[in-house]
Design a protein that fits this description.
With about 170 residues, the protein is mainly α. It has helices spanning about 5-20, 25, 45-50, 55-60, 60-75, 80-90, 95-110, 125-130, 140-160, 165. It is globular, with a radius of gyration of 17 Å. It comes from Orycteropus afer afer.
Length: about 170
Amino acid sequence: MSRNRAKEIKIKLGILLQKPDSAVDLVIPYNEKPEKPVKTQKPSLDEALQWRDSLDKLLQNNYGLASFKSFLKSEFSEENLEFWIACEDYKKIKSPAKMAEKAKKIYEEFIQTEAPKEVNIDHFTKDITMKNLVQPSLSSFDVAQKRIHALMEKDSLPRFVRSEFYQEFIK
């Protein structure tokens, strides 16, 4: 387990022990809206085989996305995917007030140093993102999101393809 993950768990446990009424905040996943059950068919063998070469195809498929997320959780490394999803949701916001609120939430949860789910981005990317957040726009997180996408493509995707989670789809 990474030091950050251990620290995150320790902090959450500490908060749970101090304030039982705030326990609910820690249990609710990042996406505030309850996810609707997806009525999609299990992917065909061809579709599943395409995921090996395309993270985007994997992320666009509900089964693939759910399986990838479960795999990352099993490795305690789901923060990159959660950040990517949060950025996708952020880009759908129309109201400037809601955009600013969501931008602050994403920054505090994923970008700032010692964030609970801090993603691994370089200082240059972090600085660009912080400058973009002075005046939040739909593209505020684009550079960071592209970096995290590249990291998942280069690092997480190959591990996922070798995992049991993926092997289930190509049996």
